[in-house]
Amino acid sequence: MVLLALAHPAWTEEVIGALSQNTVAITANFDGSEIFVFGAVKRDAPVPSDAGPLHVVITILGPSEPVVVRRKERTFGIWVNRDAVEVDEAPSFYAIATTGPLYEIMSNTARLRHRIGFDKVVRVVGAPDTISDPSSFTEAVVRIRQDNGLYSQQDGTIDLRDETLFATNVALPANLTEGVYRTRMFLLRDREVVHISETAITVRKEGLERWIYTTAHERPFLYGILSIAVALFAGWLASEVFRVLRR
Amino acid sequence: MVSLLMQLYLPIAEVSVNAFLLLGLGGIVGVLSGMFGVGGGFLMTPLLFFIGIPPAVAVATEANQIVASSFSGVLAHLRRKTVDLKMGTVLLAGGLVGSAIGVQVFKILKEMGQVELLVTLCYVVFLGIVGGLMFIESLGTIRRARKPSTSPVARKHHNWVHGLPLKMRFRQSQLYISAIPVLLIGASVGVLAAIMGVGGGFIMVPAMIYILGMPTKVVVGTSLFQIIFVTGFTTLMHATQNYTVDAVLALLLLLGGVVGAQIGARLGVRLKAEQLRILLAIMVLAVCGKLAFDLIVQPGELYSLGPGGDH
């Protein structure tokens, strides 16, 4: 940040951002959520007349886990999984919102440095030599997750007023994984990053959902026995109810 | 408020689904369970995949649901005295051994990375054979019944099963046969049940009728009796090893399922045995056809995602 500030010695600009909520609770009736992201640009001097266009890019990045991508091929008349590639880095959730077309308002080097764009966050480190087209596997991750509402790129959806106030909505689908979602707001001038504001959203299960999840993972034997007991009880109850009804 | 009641987030499957859809699916499969003495897993498991439940969760939770619907069904059959407890216990002894073997086979297939394909192929082959045989046999019996001039073929003809040692008397089934084929049937159904993630009734019911020569009347209740224990064992294995039993999903499915099983058990009494068998045969063939179709036709998405980090 110091270096960036030196590049523009005459004046400095900073982005101050906030979220409508910093926690998302997954409860029994959780059916997705919407986060309102907003902020303002703070500057210590008026904008010089020769300054380039100002833009804002907001990214929300969910916890990353390796993913195995398999590709089907027709073999003896049926479709069978043949080639598989382990994609080492793929966020479980990734949303990009901008004030304009991403590739026009931000330089490739800036996107590479700050890892912005699907091509920069979904990566294969060592694909097997037998695979001639590893990129089609990373593209499949992006395509499938876009279909599931987990990845989105919304160019031009940030509403920026007088180069000062900005706001947008980011939809979180129901199939979220638990974890910390890193939220970053980039302030751009002349396609380069001049300031970053970073915050986090915590997504976690609450209430009954939390209790079931922790019991299943921490006391699995008890959980299994309880599941069977509930099943037997429900079976008995239905049988008794129907016997009474038949009389 | 209406939407709040309908959409439910499943804590283990980690997806949001419509509660009434799950209740309805449970109910329909429950009716089949009570009518035919099949657990219904061979229908429910593919249906759960279809509505977006992760396969591992679908298989494990389905086992738990079958415990409930089978128990509900078996109580109805016990009251009507259409359960051969002795036969069921011998089948179960074989079944638990088979299930333990099946889980090991499943693990090996999983390491080979082709478990999904092999499970589907198992479904197509077994559903095809069982459904086809039942359909032909039932059609033949119905045709013979319509021509009263020809005498009906006696089911309890003596085959190789009657020449084996270790004979036991099964009074409820009116049979005096060797325990060996009973144990073998139990074990092979156990193996298949563990690999395919089902109770195994759709294989056991025809095996009991055609190999052991049991009367259709006691087949359904006895099959359900054995299925309770095998699926209970499977539930526990999945819960402790894979953490994939979803309590909320299971509860919704079994609420629909137990009610359906009661209705099914009563419908089953009213229908004739041959009608029952031909209905089941058609259903088995339909599922088989759908699975085979999906293997042959080019899928819309050739790529699939799975959890990584195993190697």
Order of helices and strands of chain A: HEEEEEEEHHHHEEEEEHH
Q: Determine the structural class of chain B based on helices, strands and strand pairing.
A: mainly alpha
What strand line-up does the widest sheet of chain B have?
1-2
Query: How many beta-strand elements of chain B?
Result: 5
Helicity of chain A, as a percent range: 25-40%
Terminal CA distance of chain B reads 46 Å
SS field, number of helical segments of chain A: 7
Low-confidence stretches of chain B: 150-155
Regions with little confidence, pLDDT below 50 for 5+ residues of chain A = none
Radius of gyration of chain A: 24 Å
Percent of residues in beta strands of chain A: 35-45%
Global outline of chain B: globular
Quaternary state of the chains: heterodimer
The gross shape of chain A turns out to be extended
Number of helices of chain B: 11
Q: In whole angstroms, how far apart are the ends of chain A?
A: 81 Å
Largest sheet of chain A: 6 strands, mixed
Task: Offer a quick outline of the entry.
The complex is a heterodimer of chains A (247) and B (311). Chain A is α+β, with helices and mostly antiparallel strands and 247 residues long.
Notes on the protein architecture:
The complex is a heterodimer of chains A (247) and B (311). Chain A contains seven helices and twelve strands. Chain A is α+β, with helices and mostly antiparallel strands and 247 residues long. In chain A, strands 2-12-11-4-7-8 form a six-stranded mixed sheet. Chain B has 311 residues and is mainly α. Chain B has eleven helices and five strands. A two-stranded antiparallel ribbon of chain B has the order 1-2. A two-stranded antiparallel ribbon of chain B has the order 3-4. The longest helix of chain B has 32 residues, at 115-146. Classes of the chains: A alpha+beta (247), B mainly alpha (311). Strand 5 of chain A pairs antiparallel with strand 5 (303-307) of chain B.
